[in-house]
Each structure stands twice: as C-alpha cells, then as structure tokens.
Design brief:
single chain; about 290 residues; alpha+beta; Alpha-Beta Plaits; 6-stranded antiparallel beta sheet; 10 strands; about 30% helix; globular
Length: about 290
C-alpha cells in the first residue's frame, strides 16, 4: 500500500474512494471548463512545449544523460502532482494505475458516477488513427465528450448502463487489453481505460523511457507449478515480458518484479494455473509500484 492510498484511498486503494468521483470535486475545481478546453484541443498536446520540452523526439532526448534526467524529473513531478490543476495542456495530476478485472468491476458497480459512456480510445486515435471504443468515462466527462463528436462511437452505444459498462470492460480484458484507472486531473477520477502497449500513452513512457507514468497494480500473478502444463498461452499474452518458459522444468514462470498485475494472462490459461494475489502478500514487493 503506497502513501497516496493511505491518504486518499478506501480499502487501501485510492481508486475505490467514491469521493474521488463526486460532482462536488468537479464544482470545487471548475473542471467542466478545464476538461472541455483540454479535450477540445487534445490533438495539440503532443506538440505543445512544457518546461521547454515536448513529446517530439522524446526517445532521443531521454538517451542524453543530463537532458534525459531533467525530462524524467519534470514529467514525473507533473504527472504525480497533488495540487489543484492549473493548465489544461499539462498532464498535471494525471496519476494512473493498472487495475485487474475484479477491481474494475468494483469501480463500475460502486464508485463511477452516472452517466457512464464509452468513447474512442484517444491513445489509439492519436498514434494510429484507429477508432475503437474501449475507454469508459463517467461523471462530467460524459458531458464533455458529448460535445466532441469525433470521439463518440459510430454504430455503437454511447451511454451505457452499469451492467453494460462491466460487460464491455470484460470483453476488452479478455481480448488482452490492460485495464487502467486515472485521475484526470487529480483529485477527480473519470477514466477507466482498456488499452495496450505500445499504443497506451500511459504505459509507454514507463516501458520505453523509465518515466513513472503509471503505477503497477495492487496485485501480482503467480503460476502454480503443479497445474502448469507449459502450453505458453500466458507467455504470448503478457505485454510486460514478465512470463517466460523454463525448458528444464517444462513450465512457465513469472518474474514477479516485472509483473504489473493486470491479470489479462488469466483469461488464456485452460488449466487454471494462474492466480492473482495482493502485492503486499510478497514482502520483497511490498510498496514496489
């Protein structure tokens, strides 16, 4: 359990605190205008300079010893800010975490404020021009996206019931998309995403550049050696390279330090060999997000 969860969470998880989804927060920080400005000009965010840097040529900048450290420092400070948001073109307070299926269901059942919608994944839209409705929003974000038709699914439902939202998330999770929950911005939670690396703009900075742009889940996957047949189905599903095959033991093993706890690998095991456990059950991984 991290310090942030201790201060802002319920049951040790910040994203299960219903207060973080409330309309009172929207009014307190005037987030309707903030979010409308942010998403109206969403396509400009990757080229706008912040602290003298932008996402263009980020890979090259991160390889430069001094510049790379500076970029990483400012990026992490901005993402993890717990101050009221000031600039809709900054990713201030955009803290996110990987969530497995059961926690996503709990969010949709007990925390998310209606109306609930699905919209095109902005990461896929920006990186590849793909239009796939695999992101779920709630509360004031539903009003904002309603004014931005380019993100509204064509030939699919826009507004969802809670049960429909849960079924949609299940579909994406079984497809192998990683569930993530986001402040957008802190202290308001309004995005439950289903995406994949390298398209996900939340996961990619961490995987490619070591920027803590998202936290690992509160869980770790473990493989029961007595149940694993070494079929390798889970290996191909893991997007973090945390699962490998041991040819001597003839079974798959999990590098738990590398595991993000997303749980999508569980869907493909026919032998029920994979289980998900709380991260805190493993002393060497406790607090390592």
């Amino acid at each position: 359990m991290c310090d942030h969860c201790l201060k802002h969470g319920t049951a040790g998880k910040w994203y299960l605190n219903a207060k973080n989804y409330s309309n009172e927060i929207v009014e307190e920080y005037n987030l309707r205008e903030f979010l409308l400005e942010q998403y109206t000009n969403f396509e400009q965010m990757s080229v706008r300079k912040l602290n003298g840097f932008n996402a263009v040529g980020l890979g090259y900048k991160m390889q430069m010893p001094i510049i790379g450290r500076v970029v990483k420092h400012f990026a992490e400070q901005m993402l993890m800010s717990t101050k009221p948001p000031t600039d809709p073109f900054k990713a201030e307070g955009h803290i996110g975490q990987v969530v497995p299926l059961d926690d996503a269901i709990a969010i949709l059942e007990h925390c998310a404020v209606e109306p609930i919608i699905q919209k095109y994944c902005m990461c896929r839209y920006m990186s590849r021009g793909d239009k796939e409705a695999c992101c779920i929003n709630f509360g004031v974000m539903s009003e904002i996206i309603e004014k931005l038709p380019r993100f509204i699914p064509v030939n699919e439902k826009f507004q969802l019931t809670r049960d429909e939202a849960i079924e949609r998330f299940k579909e994406h999770n079984k497809k192998g998309y990683i569930g993530t929950i986001w402040y957008g911005p802190y202290p308001y939670i309004n995005n439950l995403c289903s995406c994949a690396n390298p398209e996900c703009a939340g996961i990619r900075p961490r995987m490619d550049f070591g920027i803590t742009s998202i936290f690992k889940a509160e869980y770790i996957v473990h493989i029961n050696p007595d149940e694993c047949t070494g079929c390798k189905s889970c290996l191909s599903r893991c997007q973090f390279g945390a699962i490998s095959y041991d040819p001597f033991e003839k079974r798959c093993i999990v590098n738990q330090k590398q595991c993000y706890g997303c749980g999508v690998c569980l869907h493909v095991c026919k032998y029920d060999a994979l289980k998900i456990f709380p991260r805190n059950d493993f002393p060497e991984l406790r607090g390592k997000y």
